[in-house]
């Protein structure tokens, strides 16, 4: 089963209490695909500039990520983000965001990417997410992310995009903001009213929650003591989640979504243990499976 | 098995988005004992003033709470707290705190209270908690709560009290503050180093986590849509937790603690559905059991 992700490909500069890096491979689609490729062939769609070279492609390809739809914009520069993490690493400040080649990005999907059975619309302009959704008519399961910026400045477009996906994956504060509803469960039900049949709230250090019409599932995060740099944890969560879904035939029922969240949680726990997605570059599937088993033990009573 | 709780008995005045009340029966020991008495005979220890009358005693006794150790301070006024909740009901401001009879409170336990097998030291001055702990030598399981005030102004005394309990129950932000450690798991392990063999972090709307030397358990909160007034949710959680423990013979192992947390979570979910502990006044045990079963379904994958 193939999986397509559209989103950002970036260089990140980060400062953390334990050190800093000025040029990390990052971006939502990168974090996502490095995790998802553990489970299913993953095609990454997004633009890069001249500064994106063989070294970066090699990282993606070594994980089996299919890079044919990475669009090289000649003369352009790759998206750049810089941030500084606090001592409490759950808090950060954005120092700089340069859209660069992302500013004029219009996704052009190859036939292979369009034929994906599972599609993830990572956090980009909602109108672009919608265009990609329309190109992927064969997809049997489509999920999307977004962010506070689009909730503020492209609210109607975002609502329209949400109407056309199966699953909305958002930070819980964004879900509350989107629906203007401070209670998470009510907020999720308002989002379900827009069209998706599942809402997954990412809750940072606390874990995540799945809300459907007839059910609720809450999963604590993996009890990590060694958080080095958490950029991309949410995208890595989505990568593990959607990768697992793409690896399973048949309907995406609640049981599949629950287990998929555990795979997403396990992948995210590795992401935060290193800079960027570095901890996942050489990760074995068995290491992920071991953490999923641990999450299962951590959540039973 | 008998359970003793020492803590505050109070009148609360609260303002919420859905209404206000100027005289609610409250206080940590009250919320605790109304929940705990669902599971085991519970003795409440704390001071009241002349304004605390038959009406209040009747509420406690109707639930089977044993009130012999409620100390009536002639000429005194009962502890009073006033607060205002925000539209996001997870946030509140304290408007007024009058210690009143609590100011000179020195717990005097009856022989029956001292003989309790299970003891909960609700949030009061750590020195007083310590005195009570020393009076209850027969207790096979002792847990305690505290708050940011004591972490700030009575830090050493608090650490000394923690050394003499089996289980520390704290808000996760307080646990991080106590140990000066922003990572929850590290913070909990620092607290375990002080002596307790279990730490339970209360995480508000997210749920709770149990950290022991060799394990972790995370439990999401009950997915409540109807939060009326959450004062005392943490004390009610502790009441369900300790009540369940008191109702079980034998060693308090990790499996017992996990199930006890589910009972605490279920009790807390009822607490937030009404003003004060009112929703628990006429609650049936079967209603709690039903929510525990639901929590079990909500946490499996």
Describe the structure.
- Two copies of one chain form a homodimer.
- The first copy, chain A, is α/β, with parallel strands linked by helices.
- Helices cover 39% and strands 24% of the residues of chain A.
- The first copy, chain A, has a nine-stranded mixed β-sheet, with helices on both faces. In chain A, strands 3-2-6-7 form a four-stranded mixed β-sheet.
- In chain A, a hairpin with a 2-residue loop joins strand 2 (10-16) and strand 3 (19-26).
- Chain A starts with a strand and ends with a helix.
- Chain A binds chain B through residues 87-90, 176, 182-186, 189, 203, 205-207, 209, 211, 215-221, 223-225, 227, 255, 258-259, 261-262, 296-301, and chain B through 87-90, 176, 182-186, 189, 203, 205-207, 209, 211, 215-221, 223-225, 227, 255, 258-259, 261-262, 296-301.
